[in-house]
Amino acid sequence: EPEVTQTPSHQVTQMGQEVILRCVPISNHLYFYWYRQILGQKVEFLVSFYNNEISEKSEIFDDQFSVERPDGSNFTLKIRSTKLEDSAMYFCAQRGGRETYNEQFFGPGTRLTVL
Amino acid sequence: GQSLEQPSEVTAVEGAIVQINCTYQTSGFYGLSWYQQHDGGAPTFLSYNALDGLEETGRFSSFLSRSDSYGYLLLQELQMKDSASYFCAISGHYGGSQGNLIFGKGTKLSVKP
Questions:
Q1: Among A41, A46, A79, B90, which is least packed, fewest CB within 10 Å?
Q2: C-alpha span between A67 and B43 (Å, rounded)
Q3: Is B45 within 8 Å of A31 when comparing Cβ atoms?
Q4: Buried b (16+ CB within 10 A) or exposed e, B12-50
Q5: Tens-digit pLDDT profile for residues B47-73
Q6: CB contact under 8 A, B45 and A104
């Protein structure tokens, strides 16, 4: 069964640096999402992406965040100037196809550590 | 806004049945989902209720009552591997796009031998 994959699995960066987190989605699925989870806390919605456009974003998704699909397949989340509080697990997810439309398939996550 | 409340921790023994409740406040939503997350892992889908009533999937069942703003996840014949965190989530909400999940804070289930 196809899976969502993410790279890197762990990213360590200095405060103020830019990071790019990557997601390789399952082909032929149309809705994409990014979530984050601060250690020990709940999963929080960041942004949804459909038809190569942002369809909705949360209050967390401010101007320092951006999403792109640079080559039409891979999917990136960029944080322009990282802050200590950006340290979290970042998950990309995809909505299922016709048979699994109400499910979201999560990637394994990227653990971002900002020092 | 939306909010979901769950117990923070539940403990049960192997072979038992456990119910994890979820109460919510929202102006409207398309469905209530449940996800399982093991330590260090990604959330994985368990169940979805669009309509009131019970949905059964093997050892897991989920229930929704929109009139009571309440749902639950029922786990039967508990196994050690069921030790994990369980999150209820509103799936899509009126006024926003379908699909994005708003999660509760999660319930950590510990299964003892």
A1: A41
A2: 21
A3: no
A4: beeeeebebebebeeeebebbbbbbbeeeebbebbbbbe
A5: 999 999 999 989 999 999 999 999 999
A6: yes
Rounded-to-integer distance, Cα B105 and Cα B94, Å:
21
Retrieve residue A35's tokens.
Answer: 């979530």
Q: What is the pLDDT of residues A78-90, one digit of tens each?
A: 999 999 999 999 9
Whether the pLDDT of residue A113 is over 90: the answer is yes
* CB–CB contact B48 A102 (8 Å): yes
- A8 upstream amide cis, omega within 30 of 0: yes
**B97, pLDDT greater than 80:** no
Share of chain A above pLDDT 70, in %: 96
User: Which one, of B95, B104, B81, lies nearest residue B5 by Cα?
Assistant: B104
Write the residue in A41, A44, A48 that is nearest to B99 by C-beta.
A48
**Per-residue pLDDT for A33 more than 60?**
yes
Secondary structure, 3-state, A37-95: ECCCCCEEEEEEEECCEEEEECCCCCCCEEEECCCCCCEEEEECCCCHHHCEEEEEEEE
Predicted confidence band of residue B98 (pLDDT cuts 50, 70, 90): low
Angstrom distance (rounded) from CA B108 to CA A15: 32
Note whether B99 and A33 are within 8 A (CB): yes
Calpha distance B111→B72 (Å, rounded): 18
Chain B positions in Cβ-Cβ contact with residue A106 (cut-off 8 Å): 42-44
